[in-house]
Design goal:
This is Class III extradiol ring-cleavage dioxygenase. It comes from Klenkia terrae. There is one protein chain. About 35% of the residues lie in helices and about 15% in strands. The relative contact order is 0.19. With about 290 residues, the chain is an alpha/beta fold. It has a single domain, classed as 3-Layer(aba) Sandwich (Protocatechuate 4,5-dioxygenase, Chain B), CATH 3.40.830.10. The longest helix is centred in the first third of the chain and has 16 residues. Helix 1 runs parallel beside helix 2 and helix 6 crosses helix 12. A hairpin with a 2-residue loop joins strand 8 and strand 9.
Length: about 290
């Protein structure tokens, strides 16, 4: 018996996924000015097990195909907490960051050689005030919170990608950061906040994972977030530290929640009800993902 956590052949599901995904990606229409602003996305990303989860990969790719192919992607990942505000290398084919451990060798040999993103880097820098200069880490590639989902969404690797660091976990400062990059969406940039709606890994057990049980703290937090997102209650979400049920377990550290506020800030109408594109649970953790 195998599972996405113990596949017989690592990433065999990804190989199977590519059979249909690559032809569809080649047919995807590119963004034009007539399309207007692209949406702002929050996605719950997967570590290497995503490459062994066929249905989840198909969901992500279908989501990507529902939009024109972006001119470029600006992504904020839970896995790069750095102040002052920074961007990853804008050079083409910068090597990836394999910031995970204990997986099969194949996952460390995967590549995602995206094109030059220097034009996007200049536009991002221009969107920042003089009080918050932008630093480019010229030797830092995309971490797994960025390249793992994007390798599924845009498997041709033909879209320039730039990663923006998380300089703070203060919701209002992150909302402001999202507002600064909002106009980039009108120029064909897809803005993505990449985290996980619940991420209480220390509180999962082998028994709960094997049985497919969803811990009450994960379900309670997800229900709370879903209700506020449906109501467009941005301020309610920003009060998660005081109000969210199950928070110490759902987010013992909050880096997987923080990108959500960049997504909301980058939206034209942050208080408009969101469109949930992916829901359900993986290993008891909420995969809720949405766009605005």
């Amino acid at each position: 018996m195998t599972s996405i956590f113990d596949p017989r052949v690592p990433a065999a599901a990804f190989d199977e996924f590519l059979v249909d995904a690559l032809p569809a990606a080649r047919e995807q229409r590119s963004w034009t000015e007539a399309d207007g602003a692209l949406p702002s996305l929050y996605l719950s990303h997967g570590a290497p097990p995503l490459f062994d989860d066929g249905p989840w990969m198909r969901d992500l790719h279908t989501w990507a195909l529902s939009m024109p192919k972006p001119k470029d992607v600006l992504i904020v990942s839970a896995h790069w907490e750095s102040a002052p505000l920074s961007i990853s290398s804008s050079a083409a084919q910068t090597p990836l960051v394999y910031d995970f451990g204990g997986f099969a060798r194949r996952y460390y040999e995967m590549t995602y050689a995206t094109p030059d993103a220097s034009a996007l880097a200049r536009r991002v820098a221009g969107a920042m005030p003089d009080s918050e200069p932008l630093h480019e880490h010229r030797d830092r590639g995309l971490d797994h919170g960025a390249w793992v989902p994007l390798k599924v969404m845009y498997p041709l690797g033909d879209v320039p990608v730039l990663q923006l660091s998380l300089p703070t976990h203060d919701p209002h400062r992150l909302l402001d950061l999202g507002r600064r990059i909002r106009e980039l969406r009108e120029e064909g940039t897809l803005v993505i906040g990449s985290g996980f709606m619940t991420h209480g890994l220390p509180f999962l057990t082998r028994e709960s994972i094997a049985s497919g049980q969803v811990p009450s703290w994960s379900r309670d937090f997800d229900d709370w977030a879903a209700e506020l997102l449906a109501a467009g209650d941005v301020e309610g979400l920003a009060r998660y530290a005081a109000d969210a049920p199950g928070l110490p377990y759902a987010h013992p550290t909050v880096e997987h929640l923080s990108p959500l506020f960049v997504t909301l800030g980058a939206a034209d109408e942050p208080e408009r009800p969101v469109t949930t594109t992916i829901d359900g649970y993986m290993m008891g953790l909420s995969r809720r993902s949405f766009q605005l």
